[in-house]
Amino acid sequence: MIINKISKPTPEKQKGKIIDKAMIIRQLSATAIVLALAITPIKAGDYARYYDNLPTKMAEPAAPQIPDNTVILTDFDAMPDGITLNTAAFGKAIKALEKLGGGHLVVPAGIWLTGPITLKDRIDLHLERNALILFSPDKKDHLKDGKVQSCISASKRSDISITGDGIIDGNGEWWRAVKRGKVSDVEWKDYQRMGGTEADEGKLWYPFGLKNYDDIAPDFKAQEKMRVHMIRLTDCDRVLVKGVTIQNSPKFHLIPTRCKNVIIDGVTVRCPWNAQNGDGIDISCCQDVLIVNNTVDVGDDGICMKAGGGAAALKYPPVARVLIQDNTVFHAHGGFVIGSEFSAGVEDVVVRGNVFSGTDTGLRFKSAPGRGGKTSRIYISDIYMSDIRDQALVFETSYVDVPVGTGGKAVTAQDFLPEFTDIHISNVVARDTRIGISAKGTAEMIHGISLKDCSFFCTEKKTDLSSESLLGPDGIKLENVKLITNN
Fold first, then answer.
1. Each residue of 381-438: pLDDT tens digit?
2. CATH T-level fold of 301-487
3. pTM value?
4. pLDDT-derived band at 31, boundaries 50, 70, 90
5. Residues 444, 472 contacting (CB under 8 angstroms)
6. Cβ contact 352:293 at 8 Å
7. Are 328 and 355 in contact (CB under 8 A)?
8. DSSP string covering 10-40, please?
9. What is the DSSP letter of 175?
10. 401-406: which pairs have CB atoms within 8 A and are 24 or more residues apart?
C-alpha cells in the first residue's frame, strides 16, 4: 500500500520514461493511515538540549528530510513467514519510493527473511513493533557480481534513516568463526551439528562445509575474509538510526564511514559476548555525530572511533565533532574506544554521562606504529563503571590486530606513530576494575592527558605502566584522583 499526499496524481517524466503516479498511489485504508501517523520525523532542534555547556565547539547534526510518502512492504509480494526470501520485495518497495521522491518503507510485524537491502536517497526503513528483518544464512544470497554485500548498505546517499521498534538480525552464527575456548561444551556441540570445519587441532570452528548451505570460497580461510557487516553507510549525509534493535551481525554491527550529520538514538546493539569482530557502533572518519540513549552489549569494541590507517587515510577527513551521551555499554572489549586505526586524526569528541557495566576495559585508547594519528580536544566526564575485567583506563601503543586463525604480525612500522594527547577526563567512578590506569608507550605517544576528580577501586593493582615517568604533569596528570586497592 502506498500513501502519498499528492491530491491529483499526474504523469511525470523521469529518465526518459513516463511515470503515472496514479498507477502507484492506491486507495488509503484505515490501517495505512494509522501506520503513516505513527511515523514521526526528526526535525532540526530536536536534540538541541544535548549541546548546552559543551567544552568544545560543535553543533546539532542536521536530521534527514524524508518526504511524507509511505509504502507497506506487504504490497510488494512480501511474505512474513520466515521462509520466503523477500529480497526482491524490498527492492521493489524502495524503487517505488524512489519514483515518488522518497518516503517511508514500513515493515509490519512478522519475520521477513531477506538478502541485502540497499537504501536510496530520502528513504526511511521503518520497522513496526514485532517486525523482525532476518538476513539469509545462505551466503550465496549476499553475493552480487561475485562480491559479498553488507546486510543493509547505502553509498553516497543523503537523507536516509532506519527507525522503529523492530529487530534487525544478521544471522551471524552462520558466518563467524568460533574459538573453542570461548564456548561451553553444549555450545560447541551445537556448532558441530551445523556441520562446518574444525581447525587448529579442534581449537577453532569455521562455518565452512555446512550441512545445509553452500560455500562461497574455495577454503575456510578465504571465506572467513568475506564476512559481511550488518549496516554499512559510506559517504552519506544526514543519517538517522533510531529505536531499532540491531543484533547478531556476521561482523561489525553499525558502521557509518565518511558520513556527515549522523544521529544514533535509542538503539540496542547486541550479539554474543564471544562473537568474533562483533563491534557495536564504529564511527569512521565521520563529522557531526550524536550518539545518545543507546544500549550496547557485544563481542568486541562498544562505541569506537576510527580514522583509517597509514598514508591512505590522509585523503579522508578526521573524526570530528562527536557527542556521546547517556549510553549504557554492557559487555564489550571497551566501553569507549579510539583506535586502533586513526591516522586521519580524532578531534572534538565529548563523552559524558555514560555507564559501562561488565566491559573488558572502560576507556580504551589503542593503536600502533603504522596506524596511529593524533587526538585533539577529547573531553570525557561523568562516566560510571563497574565489574571491569581488565583496566578502567588504558593506553596501548603497540596494539596488534590478530584475525582469528592467525598468529598476528609484530609491529615494525616507524611512521604514523600514535599520539594520544589533549585528552581531559573528569568525574570517572570505577568500581571493581582489575587495574585502574594502564599506559604502555613512550612520552612522545602518551602525553598531555589530565585526570581530575576520579575514583578507582582496583581488585589487583592501581597502575600498570611501561615507565613511571608517564604519570606526571607532562604525561598523565592526576588531580584529586583516588586509586584504591585491597592489595
1. 999 999 999 999 999 999 877 676 666 666 666 799 999 999 999 999 999 999 999 9
2. Pectate Lyase C-like (2.160.20)
3. 0.92
4. very low
5. no
6. no
7. yes
8. -EEEETTEEEEHHHH-----HHHHHHHHH--
9. T
10. 401/340, 403/224, 404/177, 404/179, 404/204, 404/224, 404/276, 404/277, 405/177, 405/199, 405/200, 405/204, 405/206, 405/221, 405/224
| 8 Cβ contact partners less than 8 Å away, ≥ 6 residues apart | none
Instruction: Return the pLDDT at 39.
Output: 75
Query: From CA 292, how far away is CA 326, in angstroms rounded?
Result: 6
Q: Which residues contact 204 (CB under 8 A, 6 or more apart)?
A: 177, 178, 179, 180, 198, 404, 405
| Residues with Cβ within 8 Å of residue 133, at least 6 apart in sequence | 107, 112, 114, 117, 127, 166, 167, 168, 169
Residue 301 CB partners (closer than 8 Å, separation 6+): 279, 280, 282, 332, 333, 334, 337, 364
The one-letter amino acid at 156: K
pLDDT at 183 over 90: yes
pLDDT of residue 400: 79
Give the separation between CA 384 and CA 86, rounded to whole angstroms.
43
Please give the grid coordinates belonging to residue 197.
Answer: 570445519
**Residue range 142-179, pLDDT digits in tens:** 998 889 999 999 999 999 999 999 999 999 999 999 99
Give the residue from 96, 97, 126, 98 showing the smallest Cα distance to 112.
Answer: 126
Checking if the pLDDT of 17 tops 60, the result is no
- What DSSP assignment string belongs to 299-359? SS-SEEEE---SGGGGGSPPEEEEEEES-EE-S-SEEEEE-S--TT-EEEEEEEEEEEES-
| All CATH 2.160.20.10 domain ranges in the chain, comma separated | 301-487
Please report the DSSP string for 96-144 in residue order.
Answer: HHHHTT-EEEEE-SEEEEES-EE--TTEEEEEPTTEEEEE-S-GGGGEE
